[in-house]
Amino acid sequence: MQINNEKGSNPVDFTINSMISFTFIFTQSKQGSLTMGSTVNSPSTPIIIPSSPLQTSFIPKTSQLSIFKKKKPFNFASKKLVSCKASDRNQNNADSSSLNRFDRRDILLGLGGLYGATNLVSDPFASAAPIAAPDLSLCENSTVTSSSSGTSISVPCCPPKATNIIDFKPPRFSKIRLRPAAHLVDANYLEKFTKAMELMKALPDDDPRSFKQQANVHCAYCNGAYDHVGFPDQQLQIHFSWLFFPFHRFYLYFYERILGKLIGDPNFAMPFWNWDSPPGMVIPDIYVDPTSPLYDEKRNVDHQPPKMLDLDYVGTEELLSKRDQIKSNLSVMYRQIVTYKTPSLFHGAAYRAGDNPSPGMGSVENNPHTAVHRWVGDKREPFSEDMGNFYSAGRDPLFYAHHCNVDRLWNIWKSLPGKKRTDFTDTDWLDSSFLFYDENANLVRVKVRDCLNSRTLGYDYQKVNIPWLKNKPTPRRPGRGSGSGSAMAAETNTKTVIRNAFPIVLDKLVRIEVPRTKKSRTKVEKENEEEVLVLQNIRLDRDVAVKFDVYINDEDDETPTEPEDSEFAGSFTNIPHSHHNPGVKLDTNLTLPLSDLLEDLDIEGDDNIVVTLVPKEGKGLVSIGNIKIDFVRD
Ligand code: C2O
């Protein structure tokens, strides 16, 4: 038995239990397809459903992992939204000078009717073109840069070249490999895992299965080593788009198969870092023993256990009590998973062959995925190695536990109620492909369509408590009540309104009034179309760490807005990485769901919302091309 059942069967967190009351309890075996056929004893841990009437619908769906509804493909990243014209690059200087004329901390920008909301619909001109697996023979070294220090290094991270490519077919597995929570594993498991990592590290560097080559897989797919096949000017980037979840799922799959092969145990399953639950909110013990192959010295020295992980990390230490940190982390989780209800909001924007890279991140990739990378990375290193930069992230064994948890959240998201919590049916997504070396050192071409159900790949996750399902954010000023939202929006109209101010450089707090075209929508309308806030053409250097927050109708500057406040709509984040054209900025979009937030703040009837943008890390390094409200139908 690999999993310590004694600990594993009782992962309920007391800190949280003491704060909340519950009315619904049912066992995890009700998660239908998620546990069906499991060959490992699932402890009957209760999933606890909160008593709030707003959340009583949170009964995991019985079987959704393999259901696909026919619907019109939604092309969020239509070419209209993603332009990367060379002429745009010079606009940043102009932006900052126009902004500097106003010597105020808060600037209220009015968009008036200039940027009326339009529906995002399928782009009829979208080319039907899935991203093809890269041509390894054209792989180039990556150039890793740091604009802040002006340093740059060339990193060879191309894989060994093989000419024979096998098309992947999921093998038949006699048993489901159950990935355990890293903080719950027993000595027997740890011994196996340690042995497997030792053997991987002992493989010769040119073996595609070696620790070094496996780390390079991430470097190559994320730092411009490959071009799109047939588009030599377009570098492939598997972050900032709908490729994020499937790419990493396959990456972990082959990593796990290699580890299992090395120890002769085809049922070996990697651990996940359960950072979404209080007992997992520190670096798991098994990774911090300096004599272990799971250890990496390039980690932030101040973040060793028992230091609590901060899922809203901005590069500096926030001195929150343990209890407040847990609350903040669980609120981040709730917002990033529960309030994102459509495939494009969750997975990220469409990204097709020939498209500019990085059209827009999905919820989890943006946050907390980035926060965990940045929190672990060593700030003393020139490029925040290892976890703090894409080129080096795969060199830290903790990376794989981190990404197992990200991958686990994909399964959880699809199991939550909501008819649109499904994967895309767009064949450009389903047929996107990547190359990996498998456990036998064969080069394999995989397609996204083969990874949608983790059980098809032979694995699932140990069931543990999901405490954040009950951490719905609440309005900062309770009792704002019916109608007061409108009053507030009206008040802001009396402030100076600057028109045509976009693009803006985010070097200080900025307020923008954004008009809404549809108000007080019915439940059905809201189910059919999610109202979203879209920040378009967010531009920054790829190699800088950035985080800015987005608040709605929040004008209290005295006390900071926190993730547990309903007004907190989300954040934009960047993990430093590099492409071959350092002068060309990352140009991306951020789409934040608003429906729940508007409801919670009781401002669904308002004509406008006031959007506050607050730079938290990388002040002045980001510009924003436009902000508008839109409606997502996918
Ligand atoms: Cu590919 Cu967490 O990054």
UniProtKB/TrEMBL annotation:
Protein name as catalogued: Tyrosinase copper-binding domain-containing protein
GO CC entries: chloroplast thylakoid lumen
Region Disordered, residue ranges: 470-490, 555-583
Domain (Tyrosinase copper-binding) ranges: 239-256, 396-407
Residues the entry annotates as binding Cu cation A: 218, 239, 248
Source domain of life: Eukaryota
Entry annotated with the keyword Secreted: no
UniProt keyword Metal-binding, yes or no: yes
Protein family per UniProt: Belongs to the tyrosinase family.
Cofactor detail note: Binds 2 copper ions per subunit.
GO biological process: pigment biosynthetic process
Cofactor names: Cu(2+)
Compartment(s) of residence: Plastid, Chloroplast thylakoid lumen
InterPro entries, A to Z: Di-copper_centre_dom_sf, Polyphenol_oxidase, Polyphenol_oxidase_C, Polyphenol_oxidase_cen, Tyrosinase/Hemocyanin, Tyrosinase_Cu-bd
Positions of Cu cation B binding: 369, 373, 403
Organism expressing this protein natively: Gossypium anomalum
